[in-house]
């Protein structure tokens, strides 16, 4: 595909166009992802998550600047909430990160959630793979900040940074949010505000009382809009990266991520084909009964799984050749 060749040669416009095709679920999506898969797997993916209003975009902006100082290219994927009515999204992070607008070493893309409830867009994983294949060394993924459902980032990022602010609440509320269990690094941002020291102390106490983990998440303080503490955060990210590379845990995490991607792709392809309809009378009749409410979706799903002819109808394409294994992240 010409667009992929241009992207691999460093054409940013081609990368942007491919992302648009992926996000719009263009029919060429499977072909695109199959072709770029072998070129991906080299970037290091950082997930930046946490409750709304924590200054995540400002922190991501600062992290990008710090990584650029260290000579690394950076891709930024910022997830913005989509309207449940129009489906549109503000996509304002590119406006907030204007300092990188003229830097060819930084690529910024905003995505709408488009109904996803896990803090990530449905296309996020594929977009990350495209930016990875384009040669960016660090990819920062900023989630929407929806709180309790924001756990999908675990399946995507190599290091997860959870950002809080002094107003995030007491320890009980923090634990209820469900974010503490996914963090590799905690950050108390806006540390110049009242109550910041108390928040940091509560996080440290919570870690001490939690069951032992192979990696103990450090707790850092930042004032992102001033750039304070950002360099120290990058150092802790590097420490976690080095630790993870030396541990069996790191390989298990990658295996978990690969399996999650496989499950997402499989369910996406099957779902798309079911919605498009079929020419096979048996499956078409089942789909009609589901639409009419005559058969419940659970029974219908089990019927398909136990009927080889229906499964063959859903797997109408020739199987693709096994792609080259992507390079192991370092």
What does this structure look like?
This protein is an alpha/beta fold and 330 residues long. 45% of the residues lie in helices and 12% in strands. Residues 82-91 and 115-119 have low confidence and may be disordered.
In the predicted model, the low-confidence regions spanning at least 5 consecutive residues are: 82-91, 115-119
- Binned, the helix content reads 40-55%
Give the strand line-up of the largest sheet: 3-2-4-1-5-6-7
Secondary-structure-derived class? alpha/beta
Number of helices: 13
Largest sheet features: 7 strands, parallel
Approximate strand percentage: 5-15%
Q: Summarize model confidence as the mean pLDDT.
A: 80
Determine the oligomeric state from the structure: single chain
Q: Over all CA atoms, what is the radius of gyration?
A: 21 Å
Structural key phrases:
alpha/beta; 7 strands; 12% strand
What is the structure about, briefly put?
By secondary structure, the protein is of the alpha/beta class.
Write the layout of secondary structure elements.
Elements (H helix, E strand, L loop, with lengths): L1 H7 L3 H12 L5 H9 L6 E6 L6 H14 L4 E7 L12 H4 L9 E7 L11 H10 L4 E5 L16 E6 L6 H6 L8 E4 L7 H14 L9 E3 L8 H16 L2 H29 L4 H12 L4 H9 L2 H7 L16
Parallel strand pairs: 1-4, 1-5, 2-3, 2-4, 5-6, 6-7
